[in-house]
Design brief:
The protein is an all-beta fold.
């Protein structure tokens, strides 16, 4: 039988290798000045995009390094006709015809040179948002740039659309009719309001700047070529949705009997019906583990709790959601409980893993006898500390001096048995 080794409650700032962004504050903005290091978090470039398909991710073929090559497979000069997604210089009239200056220009744009076999139609610049929970009233703006005044006789029509879910099968157009090409060089600011259906989504939202129809030849030019098109200075603004509750805290702890307890407090509730507590192991797929009925509308502080009787071993992410009387659902920032286990006869934990004059270690110890603690550096030098009981079976370990900083080892002993040995970082 196994029991608790270590508890760690975190405020989550979630990052992942999955191409998505997490919204915060009141706006998101993205220039493309760091494209030489790769596409920004959350962005992908795609071909074959249409109203029912996200398209094929071709981010691995992106030409990231600016070069002054006029002719060649990896040239980022505006007039270079090689069909690829590229790191272009952002539009400035002074850069027209100056291929060397374009390569060294620090202001960059995310662009594409289309061809009949690449992106005409179906080229897309795509942003993936992890969710829009608790946000509403989205406004989108970006610069759409046409970058070839001599070789781009064909005209491309760009649309802004969106899809919802992991792999949407339907994309809805927000605005269209935005053109590049026809031997024009310019940068136009596109502004559009996103629909209310994007608000407060608890799943991925994809926003695309996409070509859904083939380019045309409005001047009836002989042997017309396609233009270089780009986007820059992408910006989303949004507002926090009012909620029927004001949440003052949401915390959790792992109990000795192998369960986790979630606690939360509200200081105001209006038309709130119930709370839903959800659990995930990857911060993406949350499943409800229980509901707690609201105590009713009030402007007084109210406390709630729920016990998860079957947490998984390792990281458990918990999310609190509330549902009001018209079934509107709002979810709050998750917390995490990290659990590991030892023999039930040796229930002990030390956390966190950082130790300093201002950050003590907290020891949970179920035995009646006070444990013996050793703290020493990786070179075997003892680190001075003091220990004080702080409630039933809980102890606070404080650093006496801060002469040493770096990795250290803490060992917990009962009689002559080493119960726990753990690395910590002294700061």
């Amino acid at each position: 039988m196994k029991n608790l080794l270590q508890i760690l409650v975190l405020s989550i700032f979630y990052t992942t290798t999955i191409a998505q962004i997490n919204l915060s504050g009141a706006s998101y903005s993205q220039d493309f000045n760091q494209l030489a290091s790769g596409l920004p978090q959350g962005w992908s470039i795609r071909t074959g995009a249409n109203a029912h398909s996200l398209g094929n991710d071709v981010s691995g073929d992106f030409v990231a390094t600016p070069t002054p090559t006029v002719i060649g497979a990896n040239g980022t000069y505006w007039k270079n006709t090689t069909a690829k997604f590229k790191n272009f210089a952002s539009f400035k009239s002074s850069l027209i015809g100056n291929y060397v200056q374009q390569a060294s220009e620090p202001d960059r744009a995310l662009g594409v040179r289309q061809s009949s076999t690449l992106g005409d139609p179906g080229a897309a610049f795509v942003l993936c948002i992890a969710n829009t929970q608790a946000f509403q009233n989205f406004q989108l703006s970006f610069d759409l740039q046409s970058l070839d005044d001599t070789n781009g006789e064909r005209q491309t029509v760009w649309s802004v659309d969106y899809g919802i879910g992991d792999n949407p099968s339907t994309f809805s157009t927000i605005s269209t009719g935005h053109t590049t090409g026809a031997n024009q060089v310019f940068s136009n600011r596109i502004n559009t309001t996103l629909p209310a259906s994007i608000n407060n989504q608890n799943q991925k939202v994809w926003i695309r700047v996409v070509t859904l129809s083939a380019s045309t030849n409005p001047s009836n030019a002989s042997n017309p070529t396609r233009t270089s098109s780009a986007i820059d200075n992408f910006s989303l603004s949004y507002q926090l949705m009012p909620t029927p509750i004001t949440l003052s805290s949401f915390t959790g702890e792992v109990l000795i009997n192998e369960t986790t307890q979630l606690k939360w407090t509200t200081i105001e509730e209006l038309n709130n019906i119930y709370f839903s507590v959800e659990r995930s192991t990857n911060m993406l797929d949350f499943r409800e583990i229980g509901r707690v009925i609201s105590q009713g509308s009030s402007k007084l502080e109210k406390s709630y709790s729920l016990i998860d009787k079957q947490p998984v071993m390792g990281l458990n992410y918990y999310r609190l959601c509330q549902v009001d009387n018209d079934s509107t659902r709002t979810c709050f920032k998750p917390i995490a409980l990290k659990t590991a286990w030892v023999d039930s006869e040796q229930q002990v934990s030390i956390y966190p893993s950082l130790f300093s004059k201002n950050q003590p270690l907290l020891l949970t110890w179920i035995r009646e006898e006070t444990p013996y603690i050793e703290i020493y550096t990786i070179n075997g030098i003892s680190v001075a500390y003091e220990i004080q009981q702080n409630g039933d079976k809980k102890y606070v370990i404080r650093l006496k001096e801060d002469a040493y900083k770096g990795l250290a080892i803490v060992s917990v002993w009962w009689n002559t048995t080493n119960i726990l040995t753990q690395k910590i970082l002294i700061e």
